[in-house]
């Protein structure tokens, strides 16, 4: 109810971006929804043909809600940043972290752990907010993303700034009197990226 009141668009934007990046119909793609919460992202992914969804979250209550959606094949409790993801290396075709990369939430130091569980050639979809109280975190996150790109760990596919991300909860946080805060969707592809097949 809270996110509906805030017109929170990140799950929709992230799922649309990921579906656009995918080279093949996603039904067989195994996807990990990190910090899955109540399953808002799963609902959007499901609408776009993703069927093999796994979720992790730090809150048992959130996982219970996510379970009740019937959209996940597997749900596990995990506090990212404090413990590794409960998955083997190179296990997922895609990994999403929507709405949890922010000040006081998942630390930017957890990004390599997301890469670890992604298959080579797989996609990672991350979001963060661009409101004033999150700018320091956003700068740290972007430095971590760029460092991994320089090291050849992944390639940037997309970084899309979105103005009307969600309603601002205070005057100071909003963009020049619009009443909204902005945010950004990032899509990366883990290297080595498989070669394009001829034909």
From TrEMBL:
<dbReference type="Pfam" id="PF08241">
    <property type="entry name" value="Methyltransf_11"/>
</dbReference>
<protein>
    <submittedName>
        <fullName>MET27 protein</fullName>
    </submittedName>
</protein>
<feature type="domain" description="Methyltransferase type 11">
    <location>
        <begin position="32"/>
        <end position="125"/>
    </location>
</feature>
<dbReference type="InterPro" id="IPR029063">
    <property type="entry name" value="SAM-dependent_MTases_sf"/>
</dbReference>
<dbReference type="GO" id="GO:0008757">
    <property type="term" value="F:S-adenosylmethionine-dependent methyltransferase activity"/>
</dbReference>
<dbReference type="InterPro" id="IPR013216">
    <property type="entry name" value="Methyltransf_11"/>
</dbReference>
């Amino acid at each position: 109810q809270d996110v509906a009141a805030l017109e929170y668009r990140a799950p929709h934007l992230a799922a649309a971006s990921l579906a656009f990046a995918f080279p093949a119909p996603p039904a067989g793609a195994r996807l990990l929804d990190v910090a899955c919460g109540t399953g808002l992202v799963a609902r959007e992914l499901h609408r776009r043909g993703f069927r093999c969804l796994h979720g992790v979250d730090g809150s048992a209550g959130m996982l219970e809600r996510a379970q009740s959606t019937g959209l996940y094949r597997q749900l596990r409790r995990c506090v990212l940043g404090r413990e590794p993801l409960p998955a083997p290396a190179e296990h997922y075709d895609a990994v999403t972290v929507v709405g949890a990369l922010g000040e006081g939430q998942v630390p930017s130091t957890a990004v390599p752990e997301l890469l670890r569980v992604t298959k080579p050639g797989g996609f990672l979809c991350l979001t963060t907010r661009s409101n004033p109280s999150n700018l320091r975190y956003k700068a740290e996150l972007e430095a971590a993303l760029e460092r991994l790109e320089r090291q050849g760990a992944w390639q940037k596919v997309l970084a899309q700034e979105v103005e009307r991300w969600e309603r601002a909860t205070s005057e100071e946080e909003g963009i020049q009197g619009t009443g909204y805060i902005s945010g950004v969707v990032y899509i990366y592809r883990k290297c080595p990226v498989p070669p394009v097949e001829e034909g």
